[in-house]
Amino acid sequence: LRLGVEGKACVWKLLAVLADSDPRISADEVDELEQRARRQIDALEELRMQTARSVFER
To answer: How far apart are CA 57 and CA 55, in angstroms?
Structure first.
């Protein structure tokens, strides 16, 4: 899951760069999508850490 979200974040980052020269791309929308992907990465990392703790605390 994390790799998929990381890939998505990379696409949004690239589109943010392209938005400067392409009026079809909304920089604000792409920025929001990249921020959302970063929040998803943070949430997945927290779940990974919780799972690891529960496995090793047994």
So the answer is: 6
pTM for this entry: 0.86
CA angle 53, 1, 55 (to 5 degrees): 15
CA distance 22 to 6: 24
**Best CA proximity match to 4, nearest among 31, 44, 32:** 44
Measure the CA–CA gap between 26 and 40, rounded to whole angstroms. Answer: 21
Tens of pLDDT along 2-49? 999 999 999 999 999 999 999 999 999 999 999 999 999 999 999 999
